[in-house]
Amino acid sequence: MLHCRELTRQHSKTFYFGSRFFPLQQRQAVWAVYAACRCGDDIVDEPGGGAAALSQWWARVQSALAGRLAFGAAGPDPVDVALGWAARHYPIPESAFRELYLGLRMDLEGHRYGTLSELELYCRRVAGVVGFMIAPICGYHGGEQTLQHAVRLGQAMQLTNILRDVGEDLGRGRIYLPADLMAEFGVTVQMLHAGQVTPEYRRLMQHLTQLARQWYAEGRAGLPCLHGSGRLAVAAAARAYEGILDALERNGYDNFSRRAQVSGPRKLLMLPQAWWELRLS
Q: Which InterPro entries does the UniProt entry name for this protein (predicted)?
């Protein structure tokens, strides 16, 4: 579990910040889920990854969820062990990881997003479905409607990542901005590679930022249906993630040469607002 905690803390300070509000056992399960997802994400982002490595990751996830562990020369992978433990304690659905696998394959295949609907599907696959993994750990009521709110919250977070990382993704040869919206706002691929925040680009960023905020609002509607302190944990993570949009706006939508981020003290200052919103919901 310590290995999964460190992976979470190192790779997503915002997710880690929210996870600390779960009770210990739930917190450990959330770290295990995040670490398993992160391992798949690293395969498609780091040199040396590929379809074969991703297929091996997917096979390991399936085995861990089913209570079977693959043993390498150094024994079982600690993330596999942790995910198997989490799956024994909570009904984490394999179907959610299957969707994640399909989303990660989209990255490997260099998928280009022609429409907003295509990008929305990608956001569902690589982040929205994490809601299907976390909700059973929290406990919830409200059935399918609550799960769809959880998916929307994950999509909002992924869209936030995309808006923050336009410059970094260009360096990997990836463009997530939908071609139809780029055309609508007069933004070309050449303009992106020039790294200039033009009036056209700024309007495109404003449009997508407003969409992300709409998705956050839709996702938060499900927070009252989560049980226990998991409600505050998810609310805190969501509020901190949305704060990245605030930072992006403060940076004048320059996501080529500046990285929008939320400091630790600023995240703490967001907690009373998150708590108060839960009280009013």
A: Isoprenoid_synthase_dom_sf, Squ/phyt_synthse, Squalene/phytoene_synthase_CS, Trans_IPPS_bact-type, Trans_IPPS_HH
Contact 220, 150 (CB under 8 A): no
Say whether pLDDT at 81 is over 70.
yes
**SS3 label, residue 223:** helix
Where does 196-263 have alpha helices with state H? Answer: 199-220, 230-250
Q: How many CB atoms lie within 10 A of CB 119?
A: 24
> Which residues is 140 bridged to in the sheet?
226
Choose between 73 and 244: higher pLDDT.
Answer: 244
For residue 236 the two structure tokens come to: 């805190």
Mean pLDDT, range 90-113, rounded to an integer: 94
Amino acid at 2: L
Q: Is the dihedral of CA 136, 9, 123, 150 positive or negative?
A: positive
Other CB atoms within a 10 A radius of the CB of residue 71 amount to 9
Domain that holds residue 253: 2-280
Two structure tokens written together for 173:
């040869």
Residue 158 to residue 54: CA distance in whole angstroms: 20
Query: What is the model's pLDDT at position 14?
Result: 81
Give the HSE-up count for residue 280: Cα atoms under 13 Å, Cβ half-sphere.
8
Q: What is the pLDDT of residue 200?
A: 97
> What are the residues facing 75 on neighbouring strands?
72
DSSP state of 227: -
CATH code: domain of residue 54: 1.10.600.10
C-alpha–C-alpha distance, residues 102 and 156, integer Å: 19
Question: How many domains does the structure of the chain reveal?
Answer: 1
